[in-house]
């Protein structure tokens, strides 16, 4: 498994293409809300028809909180949810309270292959095949670098 981290916030056309690739190659994605923040209910309502499950936890991709548990919204990745992700933001790190839920994470066959910790501006891919490495290399303007372990 290789880890490739974002070295720049995908914005504009790069963000649009980035979200499309993530949606097209994932079964589902999730984002989280925290009790400490208020979120735009209209945004959450738009995703409601596609929610697979919601649950509370203190641990999700790259995050362990000492505070209140977060609510995780697990959502089907499809054309409709992809369009919502593209329309609601013009940048990955805009997914932050109070306007939008946080920490977009994309999952294919129960593997979180893209994770994000929005408030810390950290995002990256867990790549296990040449196919996925090629996918991310084709996103115009996406700036990533391979982590050295």
Automatic annotation (TrEMBL):
It comes from the Bacteria. This is Uncharacterized protein. It comes from Calidifontibacillus erzurumensis.
